[in-house]
Write a structure and sequence with these properties.
- There is one protein chain.
- This protein is an all-alpha fold and about 80 residues long.
- It has 3 helices and no strands.
- It is flat.
Length: about 80
Amino acid sequence: MAKAKEKESKRKLPTAPQKKKRGSLKDYFKGVKLEMKKVVWPTKQELGSYTVVVLVTCAVFAAAFWAIDTGFLAALKGLLGITM
């Protein structure tokens, strides 16, 4: 029983988060420069293939949304009896 109370007293209570020290603009840009050195940039070939993937994906989604929209429009026209 005494050990349980001892453990409870050793637990750290949650504290309010400390305010971060505000750095200078110069320090900020130094940090940005450091992080930019860590970036692994794609090669021209990778960039080209990524671009193709993005364009094809956009085209597929555009076609899918067009098909869904056309289907809903046809269904609504049928339900409401609209003819044009």
